[in-house]
């Protein structure tokens, strides 16, 4: 059924953007067998705006919709992606216009590359490895937003965590992690891409480290415990709450 958001928002100067109440799209990731990630892209129908380019499933928001609801609905309509099969992780306003129009990109994960069913708005749909997205001719708006949306891969070894956290990690990885300034694709494949990551639990490095030259409180060589790492290792520290949620 046609919603009340379909139509052009016109800025001073006559520049038009689709969506009377703004627009939203879904950036959906899924794991690859190597530990990497793939992104669902839509090859836009030739009759559409910037037809023939690649972008995200998306479209106009209705007046009664949140950006998340609109993006998930559009992904269902344009790609057959069902809300029950994905997990929303974050959202970003990735374009604005003087008219007040905004485009919101909703970031979500699927447990595997899902089957897709294109409608008339697509030439095709494809799961594209994340590092190959910018090798395709992208819609100009998506091309501008992509550097801030793409995820950097990192790998985590659940055995370095406590038993309880290891079990939680196995259940939640791989997944997109929102660190505010960037996104991480966190996985547990030993030979997979990316830097080694640890949970900041306890904080690593310590929030209040001992002064230089201070004696080692465990006498040197002690087990630093879950979440720590050898001093000569390059690691990416990720807050526990960003992966496993806030502690009770």
General description of the model:
This protein is of the alpha/beta class and 248 residues long. It is 15% helix and 33% strand. It has helices spanning 67-79, 140-149, 163-172, 240-244, and strands at 8-10, 16-18, 23-31, 37-44, 54-55, 58-60, 86-96, 102-110, 122-129, 151-156, 175-178, 183-187, 195-200, 235-239. The radius of gyration is 21 Å and the shape is elongated. 31% of the residues are buried. The model is unreliable at 206-232 (pLDDT under 50).
Summarize the structure.
With 248 residues, the chain is of the alpha/beta class. It has four helices and 14 strands.
Give me the secondary-structure topology:
Layout: E1 8-10, E2 16-18, E3 23-31, E4 37-44, E5 54-55, E6 58-60, H1 67-79, E7 86-96, E8 102-110, E9 122-129, H2 140-149, E10 151-156, H3 163-172, E11 175-178, E12 183-187, E13 195-200, E14 235-239, H4 240-244
Parallel strand pairs: 3-8, 10-12, 10-13, 13-14
Antiparallel strand pairs: 1-2, 3-4, 3-6, 4-5, 4-9, 7-8, 11-12
| Number of alpha- plus pi-helical segments | 4
Strand content: 25-35%
N-to-C span: 43 Å
Q: Biggest sheet: strands, sense, closure?
A: 7 strands, mixed
Helix content: 10-25%
Ranges with pLDDT <50 over ≥5 residues?
206-232
Structural class: alpha/beta
The ordered string of helix (H) and strand (E) elements is EEEEEEHEEEHEHEEEEH
Report the oligomer: single chain
Mass-distribution shape: elongated
The gyration radius over C-alpha positions equals: 21 Å
Give the number of DSSP strands. 14
Mean pLDDT equals: 86
């Amino acid at each position: 059924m046609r919603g009340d958001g379909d139509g052009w928002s016109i800025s001073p100067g006559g520049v038009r953007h689709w969506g009377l109440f703004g627009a939203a799209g879904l950036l959906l990731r899924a794991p690859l067998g190597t530990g990497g990630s793939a992104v669902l892209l839509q090859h836009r129908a030739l009759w559409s705006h910037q037809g023939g380019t690649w972008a995200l499933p998306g479209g106009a928001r209705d007046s009664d919709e949140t950006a998340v609801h609109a993006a998930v609905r559009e992904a269902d309509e344009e790609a057959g992606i069902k809300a029950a099969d994905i997990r929303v992780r974050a959202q970003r306003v990735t374009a604005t216009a003087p008219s007040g129009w905004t485009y919101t990109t909703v970031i979500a994960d699927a447990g595997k590359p899902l089957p897709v069913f294109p409608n008339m708005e697509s030439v095709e749909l494809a799961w594209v490895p994340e590092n190959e997205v910018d090798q395709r001719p992208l819609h100009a708006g998506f091309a501008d937003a992509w550097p801030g949306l793409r995820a950097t891969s990192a790998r985590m070894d659940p055995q370095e965590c406590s038993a309880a956290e290891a079990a939680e990690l196995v259940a939640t990885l791989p997944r997109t992690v929102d660190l505010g300034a960037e996104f991480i694709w966190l996985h547990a494949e030993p030979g997979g891409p990316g830097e080694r990551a640890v949970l900041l639990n306890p904080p690593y490095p310590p929030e209040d480290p001992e002064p230089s030259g201070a004696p080692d409180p465990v006498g040197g060589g002690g087990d630093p415990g879950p979440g720590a790492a050898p001093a000569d290792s390059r690691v990416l520290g990720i807050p526990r709450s960003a992966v496993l949620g806030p502690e009770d």
